[in-house]
Design brief:
The protein contains five helices and 27 strands. By secondary structure, it is mainly beta. The chain folds into two domains: 149 residues, no CATH class; 137 residues, L,D-transpeptidase catalytic domain-like, CATH 2.40.440.10. It holds the Pfam family ChW. This is L,D-TPase catalytic domain-containing protein. Pathway: Cell wall biogenesis; peptidoglycan biosynthesis.
C-alpha cells in the first residue's frame, strides 16, 4: 500500500511540475488569450434614401440595397450614420446633384442631396474620418440608369457617373476591417463624361479614355450612327440620361465614296447578303438610303472565302462606290444591334470624338475577312 501511495504522490508532483512549466512558458492567462475580431465587432452602418415619388424609404444596414433599382425612379437624397462604437471619428459623404454638381461633405445622418426639387443624384463619395478610419474601410456601389450596378469602390472614391446625366437608382454600403477580405475594385466603379470634338466621351475610374464602352456597360437599347466622310470613321452614339444621343460609345474604321450623300437618314431594311455593284456581294448589309448601304468589304461571290483582299486593305480610305464599307465584324454589329429606323447622320468634319481605329492589312493570298466570326 505504501508503494502505491508513493507512486500516486510522485505522479501528482510530476503532473504539477509539467503544468507549471507550460504556464511559465506561456505566461499568465491574460497574455494567452487573444480576441479575434469578427463581424460582430464592426460598427453597423445605417443609410436611407429619398426616392422620386416615394419620399424617404426605411433605413437599411450593412450592404443591403436602398433605392429602387427595378423602377425608373431617381435617388434624390441620402442619410448615412454609424452605430455607437469605441473609436473617435465619423462617416462623411458628398453627392453630385443634377445642375448643382458636387456638394460639401456632411456627416453622421445629415441629409446630402435635395428634397422637393426633383433633382437626381448622379454620384457619391463616402469616407471615414478620425480614429475610426485607421481600423475600417467603407465600401459602396451604386445602380445607375441605363447601366445597372457599377463595381465596388471605397474610401472617398467616386461611385456613379459625372457628366452623363444618369440618375442613381440604388446604393449599397458596407464597412470592412482593414485586414478583412474586401470586394475587388475595378475601372467600372465610376464613369466620367466630358466633351471632345462636339460629343461626350467616357473616362473610366482609372481616368482612361473608353473607346469601346460596350466592354464597360454592355449593350444599350438603342443607338445612333455618325459617318464622317472626311475621316472614314463611323461613331456609334448612345443616349445620355436625358435621352440625347451625345455619348460616343464605340467607333469603326470604314470606307466611304465620293458619291456617299450627306444628311440625316433612318435605316429602312437589312440583308444578310446583298448584291452590290460590279457583280460583288456584301455581308450584313443595312440600307441607309436608296442604294447606299452599310456592308462588309465586297466578295466575289456569296461565299465568305471570296473576299476582295485589295479592297479590304483599303479600309480607312475613300474608295467605295457610295456605300459605307466596314470589316465583317463591324458590319455585323450594326446588323445585329441597330434596329430599323436607326438614325444615321453622314457628315464631313475634320475630327471625331474617338480616335480612328487602325486596320491590320492582310496578305494578297488571304481571301477571307479576319474579323468574320463564322470562319
Amino acid at each position: 500500500m505504501k508503494k502505491v501511495i508513493c507512486l500516486l504522490v510522485s505522479f501528482g508532483l510530476i503532473f504539477t511540475a509539467m503544468l507549471n512549466f507550460v504556464y511559465a512558458i506561456n505566461g499568465n492567462e491574460d497574455n494567452i488569450e487573444t480576441v479575434q475580431q469578427t463581424d460582430d465587432t464592426i460598427p453597423n452602418i445605417f443609410y436611407n434614401t429619398h426616392v422620386q415619388d416615394y419620399g424617404w424609404l426605411g433605413t437599411v444596414t450593412n450592404g443591403n440595397v436602398s433605392g429602387m433599382s427595378e423602377e425608373s425612379k431617381r435617388l434624390e437624397a441620402i442619410q448615412i450614420s454609424l452605430s455607437e462604437n469605441n473609436y473617435a471619428g465619423k462617416i462623411e459623404y458628398s453627392t453630385y446633384i443634377e445642375d448643382y454638381g458636387w456638394q460639401d461633405y456632411v456627416g453622421n445622418g445629415a441629409i446630402s442631396g435635395t428634397t422637393g426639387e426633383s433633382r437626381r443624384l448622379e454620384a457619391i463619395k463616402i469616407r471615414l474620418s478620425g480614429e475610426i478610419s485607421n481600423y475600417y474601410d467603407v465600401y459602396y456601389r451604386v445602380y445607375c440608369q441605363n447601366i445597372g450596378w457599377l463595381d465596388w469602390t471605397s474610401n472617398d472614391k467616386v461611385a456613379g457617373t459625372v457628366g452623363g446625366s444618369y440618375r442613381l437608382k440604388a446604393i449599397e454600403i458596407k464597412l470592412y476591417s482593414k485586414n478583412a477580405d474586401k470586394p475587388a475594385e475595378t475601372n467600372k466603379s465610376s464613369l466620367t463624361f466630358s466633351y471632345r470634338n462636339g460629343f461626350k466621351v467616357c473616362y473610366d475610374a482609372n481616368d482612361n479614355l473608353c473607346e469601346d464602352l460596350e466592354k464597360l456597360i454592355g449593350l444599350q437599347n438603342s443607338y445612333a450612327l455618325r459617318v464622317n466622310k472626311q475621316t472614314n470613321v463611323v461613331t456609334v452614339l448612345i443616349q445620355n440620361g436625358e435621352g440625347e444621343y451625345e455619348i460616343a460609345y464605340k467607333r469603326f474604321i470604314c470606307s466611304v465614296g465620293n458619291d456617299t450623300p450627306t444628311g440625316i437618314f433612318y435605316t429602312p431594311a437589312k440583308y444578310r447578303w446583298r448584291a452590290l455593284v460590279e457583280s460583288s456581294y456584301g455581308q450584313y448589309s443595312t440600307r441607309i438610303v436608296n442604294r447606299i448601304l452599310f456592308h462588309s468589304v465586297p466578295y466575289d461571290k456569296m461565299n465568305p472565302y471570296t473576299l476582295l483582299t485589295e479592297e479590304y486593305n483599303k479600309l480607312g480610305t475613300t474608295c467605295s462606290h457610295g456605300c459605307v464599307r466596314l470589316t465583317c465584324e463591324d458590319a455585323k454589329w450594326i446588323y445585329d444591334n441597330c434596329a430599323l429606323k436607326t438614325k444615321v447622320e453622314i457628315v464631313t468634319r475634320r475630327f471625331d470624338p474617338l480616335n480612328k481605329p487602325k486596320i491590320q492589312k492582310i496578305p494578297s493570298s488571304q481571301t477571307w475577312d479576319p474579323t468574320d466570326s463564322n470562319i
